[in-house]
Amino acid sequence: GETRATGSTPERSKVSRIVFGFAGMRLSSDDEELLHRLALVGAFARGRLPDRRKLSRFLAGQAPDFLLRFPGLVVLRDSTFLLRFFCTPLANLFTDDCRSDGQAWQAGDADLRWEYRLDEDEFSVIGFQRRLVLGRPLPQQHSSHSLYKRMANFFGSAEQSHKKASMASAAALSGPSLNSEEDVLHASEMPTFGGHLSATDSELLLTYLTVPYLRIPLVLHLFNDRSRLGALACPQLQTMLDA
């Protein structure tokens, strides 16, 4: 928070600030405030505060002394950009499963090259062999084999007709009639997975798999017990846990 003086009594107030949102691929007012403070600390102000365009050049590394003075800023800038890039469905995601030369993606392909383009008044960010942009609509001709599609399938946002049934479900392990906790509780027989689990443990497992969001920690906790750890020798349970 910030400390404000009111008479002789300091008053604390919480101020929410968001940096490196890169909305419109430009600096926000919070970004400018952060960079102004760094410019003052690093003696880059030289009599007056740099304007937004100069600050943009600082962040893009086009005035390299600035990032040499604050190397941690590069890590914060790039990691924040990539996190936002991969989390938004509006991102202009790259479409290929591999590099243009047919080789698999390497860690170095994720290195971002920044440039502030004065004529466009926005950042240009190059990574994964193309320009990466936040907040732009996905092209209509987007490949069906794209990373976006694969990520959408993983998070369940793709069209239902294109989704495969998850093996981490009670229905996949014991039959299509088990779709809820109530179905599991009323089932007349529990699978034992070749004797690897007791009927009681099997009922617990199938019940956990019907719980949205919490099923991962619940299932991991179940198999964290030494008495059940050996059950993972069962290929069916391995596939379930891997899914």
In percent, how much strand structure appears in the residues?
5-15%
Low-confidence segments, given as residue ranges, are: 1-9, 140-146, 150-163
User: What is the H/E string?
Assistant: EEHHHHEEEHHHHHHH
Distance between the termini: 42 Å
Radius of gyration, in Å, reads 26 Å
Global morphology: elongated
Q: How many strands, which pairing sense, and closed or not: the largest β-sheet?
A: 3 strands, antiparallel
Mean pLDDT across every amino acid position: 77
Number of strands: 5
Estimate percent helicity: 25-40%
Strand order of the largest sheet: 3-4-5
Structural features, described:
The chain has 243 residues and is of the alpha+beta class. The chain has eleven helices and five strands; from the N terminus they run ββααααβββααααααα. The protein has helices spanning 29-41, 52-60, 65-69, 72-87, 147-155, 170-174, 181-185, 199-208, 215-223, 226-229, 235-242, and strands at residues 2-6, 9-13, 113-117, 122-127, 130-132. The strands form two sheets. Strands 3-4-5 form a three-stranded antiparallel beta sheet. A two-stranded antiparallel ribbon has the order 1-2. A hairpin with a 4-residue loop joins strand 3 (113-117) and strand 4. The longest helix is centred in the first third of the chain and has 16 residues, at 72-87. The chain is elongated, with a radius of gyration of 26 Å. The chain starts with a strand and ends with a helix. Residues 1-9, 140-146 and 150-163 have low confidence and may be disordered.
